[in-house]
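#onboarding

Welcome to the new folks! Below is a worked example of what a typical request in this channel looks like: someone posts a single protein sequence, and someone else replies with the predicted structure as tokens. Don't worry about understanding the tokens yet, we'll cover that in week two.

Example request:
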Amino acid sequence: MTEAYDYVIVGGGSAGCALAARLSEDPGTTVALIEAGGRDRHPYIHIPAGYARILGHHRLTWGYRTEPDPGTADRALDYPRGRVWGGSSSINGLGHVRGHPSDYDLWAQKGCTGWGWDELLPYFRKHESFASGGAERGTAGPQPVEHLAETPPLLDHLAAAARAIGLPVNADMNGPQREGFSTFQQTRRGRRRISAARAYLHPALGRPNLHVIDQALALKIVVAEGRATGVAIRRAGVEQVVAAKREVILSAGAIGSPQLLLLSGLGPAADLAALGIPVLRDMPGIGANLQDHFIIRLGFRLASHRWSANRRIAGWRLPIEALRWALRGDGVLTWSPGMFSLFARTAPGLEAPDIQINGGPLSWAEAPAAPGHRFAGLRIGVPESGPGMTLGVWQCRPESRGAITLASPDPAVAPRIAPRFLATEADRACALRGIRLARQWMAAAPLAGIVAGESRPGPAAADDAALLDFARETGGTVYHPCGTVRMGGDPTAPLDAQLRLRGIDGLRVVDASVFPDIPVCNINATVLSVAEKAADLIRAG
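Example response:
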């Protein structure tokens, strides 16, 4: 059985939802969106703080795990990616953050013509609706963006402490000044998360030329005579081909897009042949260049529950917060894991921040340390009994590069994910500078009498060796994988600057996998901007 559409998009995440909505604006164009998951009906998706309950959900995520690696003390890490309408925008922490302008100018310098800051800024403006914005902010886009619904009193003191260590305080974290302290902005409208599915896909569902094919596993790209002509899928146990009259567009994310290309015979020839996959084109760059931010979570004791929300989400008080969320649209259930952010340059000669620190006035109970490890993990979502705060420290532009490779020719088997965190000396040195910056910030005079001490890793971890052990034994992903099907001007880049796969006609990739390099920040806003620009490129032919 074959159905035919002008455009067949694989993946209903941020990029796929945006593309489906934009390409179907032309009533003469037919669009199919293939999504492995189902509708975004789960209630925790729509409650901002619900992320803590669904990151490992068996139905809403892919259940990925990384390969054990020395950079993570030989631990296999959970690697959540959304498997539901909206993809990871339905399960993420709602952070809406633009990269530093130099992020995109560096893309352009690597041969990604048309992808510099000046060219991308109109698409950042196009996708967002931010009522408080200045001249560089969008006010009429499909993606609502709002300031925090509740600003905890601790944040004013954190801002003062940032000033005390020489960093500015910014009213708009996505304004002209990136470095310094600011409160987070969220992909939210009132009390509810607004994922890419809610912002783009749902409003477009009434169009007769848009067809969503969900609960469908993409098996491979169908290629005939050097051209992508469709996508083979399995749905309810039945295999069929969804044919593309113009283009196949992969928007399955930094894990799913390279996996599907590899399954289709596009990738490193030796690796494919070893799995018995017929090689259509030897492309060593597919699956390479995996980048992600590595977060190290520090814990601090606070002097009083006045400053912390730990008690507000425990026991009989949690139902009160639920009622507050339902009736007033504020309170802890509107919170993100990141309530505030501190961007800073910690080495001379940098044009952009190399460290981001974010967090909120919540701290989590500890999990037992793994055998042979010094430091305990965290039970994210289970608050400590005492008042506390968590700071997440990460390097903005890591040098370390990992890879996505196939574990099996079976499309239902997860690929191997090897981020290779902390693989370089420069990355390890930057992680140490970030931890020490966080400690300096918490020791600043405006926090005296509020921050009562460090609980994780604690003052006993004073030297570089102990701090690196803590980072390796407890750190993890910030859920920002990208770069695995990069665009570039060099022939080793799988994609050209039009996001077309080299050597195969009618096939593009549009998602975080196309990034040549990771931006300094959370990546969802950049993904939406890439998708908006890609829609114009596709319509222009």
